[in-house]
């Protein structure tokens, strides 16, 4: 359950049973915030709206694949949106901006980072956990998540061996998971 009392897991399970009212509640609860994230990732509202539509179609058609033992419902729906956005970026051949300032803001104390993460990812806890990660682990994770870079692209961009990048990402994700479960 999220801090606002909305039970994402139960709503997704109802969607898996084809409960249209549950799906509508989910849409009403998250569409605005998901659209904001899609605009941030894609840079254009029209592309973001298409992405949001595709994400909700995917959520409805795959709700039976959601498993609360594997993660939180809200994270599951946002991962679907994120993958749809990254696929759009890849298909347009436009994945990475040269500025990594946005990446590091996600773990900073700036008001922009607080607002973005609070709205998009139940942010205070995630931000706290990201801040606890040392930069060599945090930066590759953020490049992968917010810019959609592959391990190879991250290694090239940071001029660090691929094996080192993979190890840092694995260790960083383990540390994040432990922190978020604490």
From TrEMBL:
Pfam families: Sigma70_r2, Sigma70_r4_2. GO terms for biological process: DNA-templated transcription initiation. The keyword Transcription applies. It comes from the Bacteria. Residues 125-176 form the RNA polymerase sigma factor 70 region 4 type domain. GO terms for molecular function: DNA binding; sigma factor activity. Residues 26-94 form the RNA polymerase sigma-70 region domain. Keywords: Sigma factor, Transcription, Transcription regulation. Gene3D superfamilies: 1.10.1740.10, Winged helix-like DNA-binding domain superfamily/Winged helix DNA-binding domain. Belongs to the sigma-70 factor family. ECF subfamily. PANTHER family: RNA POLYMERASE ECF-TYPE SIGMA FACTO, RNA POLYMERASE SIGMA FACTOR SIGZ. NCBIfam families: sigma70-ECF. This is RNA polymerase subunit sigma. It comes from Halopseudomonas laoshanensis.
